[in-house]
Amino acid sequence: MGMAESKVPKRQYTQEYKLECARLAQSVGINEAARRLGVPSATLGNWKRLAEQDTLVSSSTGTSMPAMAQRSVSELEAENSRLRKELASARLDVEILGKSHGVLLQRVTVRYAWIDTQRAHCSVSRLCRVLEVSRSGYCQWRVRRPSRRSLANAVLDAQVKAVHTTSQRSYGRLRIVQALRAQHQRIGHERVRQSLIRQGLRPVYKRRYRNTTDSGHALPVAPNVIARQFDGWAPDRVWVGDMTYVATQEGWLYLAAILYLGSRRIVGWSMSDRMTSDLVCDALKAAYWQRKPAPGLIMHTDRGTDRGSQYASRPHRQLLQDYGMVASMSRRANAWDNTVMESFFKTLKVERIYQVRYATRAQARLDIVNWVEGFYNRRRLHSAIGYRTPVQTEAALKAA
User: Fold this and answer.
1) Architecture in CATH of 238-399
2) DSSP code per residue over 294-325
3) How many Cβ atoms are within 10 Å of 218's Cβ, its own excluded?
4) Domain ranges (residues) in the chain
5) What pLDDT is stored for residue 307 in this prediction?
């Protein structure tokens, strides 16, 4: 006679346990919750469904799962929606500020005038809030607003001042006109001139610049290969170099720089408290490893100073030979043979160095590098290359 088949009693679960399991399933998913709890997925899915239908209630608290979990989900969705709206609003505010070109820093009437030009594209309330003026003040201004010409002049004044400030006060009428035209504005020289007069704006003081190179030495010199032909060269075919000095309260800081003739871009520099051959060699090394030009590049320099004859020194001549470069030098006591570098140093000193008092050489180094890389190479419009920046010109040469 066979043994009676034994029956395994079914496991009994309390309502509280089922409710907690349902909450876990909603949090991490049914399969993961089933794995953790050792409960069949089908059973756990059934508990989750009952809980979501409000039919699974805790006997101790009388609270169903949705009363807590669904409220939490609803709150999160509401918070997410609110944050998305705030982000979209903030992006629109930033877009308005970007279009205003510094109008926020101008007097209230200028801001009113700019708002009036944008009211068809954005709500007046938002424009007033972003530009920090009252809507009621703007409405009153519209009632008694000045002539259309006055409005246009107010907007132009703000734009001219913004360009003048961005250029570190170095731009005059010609470059401001070119900068505004680059922003797709139709503007004439006379209106910009009048705007500068109205606001009392002028370029930084043109202190006299003195040439610093003395070629009175007896070391070997190279012939003048470029012969004052500063334009029309192929990309990275000719570099020019020179040295100058900068006054600080710690003493002199000497600067050697190398300029790519095709785009007028500064491609290498070196600074030191001593004017030695290492100064010009370090500048050449920096330019070479940044650009890695093909052999045959012409490196044109002055002859150097009578205190060191740096460009005619043996280390510099050896470096040119190692890099496969052709040496070229200006004639004795003739700054016009290297006028492009003289022009760059004049721009650097008049527009920046003469406007600052450097306490230390370290301060001067940082400021000069920031001006060269942050402003001159990338933002300053250069008349010799069609009022474009060196970086823009170089990109055009590469694309040609």
Assistant:
1) 2-Layer Sandwich (3.30)
2) PTT-EEEE----TTT-GGGSHHHHHHHHHTTP
3) 8
4) 12-98, 101-199, 238-399
5) 39
